[in-house]
Design a protein that fits this description.
17% of the residues lie in helices and 33% in strands. It contains five helices and 17 strands.
Length: 242
C-alpha cells in the first residue's frame, strides 16, 4: 500500500509538499485502536492516528447542521479535513446538497462535491521515528506494554522503540542478513524472537540486558535456532504452549 506523509517529522496533513511512501509493514496499538505504526520501503517508521487530523468531532458537525442534515458517516469524513480547508470544504459540500435538493448530506453527496482528495483524505502521520537504512519488513506492538514496539529491516537491525521518543531504545543485529520478522512472547513480556535471512530464529530476553565496558547496553541472543535452509519470513509464539 501507499501512505501520504509530509517531509517533516510531524507529517503534513495539509497535503502541501506531502510525499508518498510505499508501505511494507503495519501494526496497531494493543491499547488504542486509533493508533498504529507504519514501516516504509525507504526505511521510515511512522506513528499514525486515525484521528490525528480531526478538527471537530463528528457529533459536533451533525448537531450544527442547520439548512441540511449531516449523516454520521459524512460527518466522520468532514471531521478529518485540515483546519485551513475545513470551512471552505464544509460550505462546498452543503452547497452541493442544496443544489441537488437533498435534505441530508450523505457520503454520495460528499464525494460528488468535487472536493480535492488532499482535503478529504488528510495524512494520518503524526510522528516520525529514527529511520532504518533499508525497507522495514515487520512491526509489532508489545502485548504487555502499550508504548513498546519492535521493527525489523533489511539493514539487519531489529529495533525496540518507545512510542514516546524518536530514537530506538535498543538495536540488535541478529545476523549479517535481512531481519524479516519479529514476534513478542505471548507469556513473557521481556522475550521476543526475530526471523532472519540465514534461516535462523533468534531468541532475546530483555532481562539479560547488560552494560558493556564501554558503557553501551548490549543484548546477545539467548538462543539461535536453525529452522530452515531458506529465509524465515514469519515467526509466532504458540499462545497455548508458550
Amino acid at each position: 500500500g501507499y501512505l501520504s506523509g509530509g517531509g517533516g517529522p510531524m507529517g503534513d496533513s495539509s497535503g502541501s509538499g506531502a510525499k508518498i511512501h510505499g508501505t511494507t509493514a503495519l501494526s496497531f496499538s494493543k491499547e488504542d485502536p486509533t493508533s498504529f505504526v507504519v514501516g516504509a520501503e525507504s526505511g521510515l517508521v511512522l506513528k499514525c492516528s486515525l484521528i490525528a487530523a480531526q478538527q471537530q468531532s463528528p457529533d459536533t458537525i451533525v448537531a450544527a447542521g442547520k439548512e441540511v442534515e449531516w449523516t454520521p458517516a459524512a460527518a466522520r469524513v468532514l471531521s478529518r479535513v485540515p483546519y485551513m480547508d475545513f470551512q471552505k470544504t464544509k460550505l462546498k459540500i452543503e452547497k452541493a446538497a442544496i443544489t441537488a435538493r437533498e435534505s441530508k448530506i450523505t457520503l454520495e453527496i460528499v464525494f460528488g462535491a468535487e472536493v480535492p482528495a488532499r482535503s478529504l483524505f488528510a495524512s494520518p502521520v503524526a510522528f516520525a521515528y529514527e529511520a532504518h537504512a533499508g525497507p522495514v519488513y515487520a512491526l509489532v506492538h508489545s502485548p504487555f506494554h502499550r508504548h513498546l514496539f519492535l521493527s525489523a529491516s533489511t539493514d539487519s537491525g531489529v529495533r525496540l522503540f518507545s512510542a514516546l521518543q524518536a530514537a530506538p531504545l535498543l538495536t540488535v543485529y541478529p545476523s549479517g542478513g535481512t531481519a524479516f520478522c519479529v514476534a513478542w512472547s505471548a507469556s513473557r513480556p521481556a522475550v521476543f524472537a526475530a526471523g532472519c535471512a540465514d534461516g535462523r530464529i533468534y531468541m532475546y530476553d530483555l532481562l539479560s540486558l547488560h552494560d558493556s565496558e564501554a558503557g553501551a547496553s548490549q543484548l546477545q541472543p539467548a538462543q539461535a535456532l536453525q529452522v530452515a535452509a531458506q529465509p524465515v519470513f514469519s515467526v509466532q509464539f504458540n499462545p497455548r504452549d508458550p
